[in-house]
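User: I'm writing a tutorial on reading structure tokens. Could you give me a worked example: one chain, its sequence, then its tokens, then a sentence or two explaining what the tokens reveal?
Assistant: Sure. Here is the example chain.
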Amino acid sequence: MSMARHPNVPPIIETHDHEYRGSGVESTVAVAGHPLHPVIVTFPIAFLVAAFGSDLGYYLTQDPFWARASQWLLGAGIAGGVLAAITGMTDFLRIKRVQARSAGWIHMATNVVVLGIAVLNFLPRIDDPVGPILPLGIVASAVVAALLGVSGWFGGELSFRHKVGVIGEQDRTTS
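And here are its predicted structure tokens:
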């Protein structure tokens, strides 16, 4: 069984064959060569998607437990999202390959929108976890969950198609 040289899914946006053969561009925020951004993003993604699930739980049961769960999940998702944004923005600003690819811009812009919507969804819930859920809170949570899927796709494009955050010998300024 041989390994494919190229992804089996055609690119949605630009692609560069030389990036498949290169050793990649290392992350500028790494521990022992391992990029931190992909590790950090898992928790805020899980929390923000789970907030949509707990909003649905409240909608289906009217149990205030689910409203409080959403409140906590949104807060934790935002806090973790800020940490993920710091590591991601550091790479975005310091790695020219990320800035040169549409995937980098779409990934960054989508995540900024996600954090903005999440904050706007969280603030009214600080004093009242139940009231803001229906109808706008659950819609905002659904939009955030969907946008995280889009953002994740383009983050994957950066890592897997453009080899950003891959341990290698190339200079991070290589495009």
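What the tokens reveal: The beta strands are 30-31, 34-35. The CA atoms of residues 49 and 145 lie 5 Å apart.
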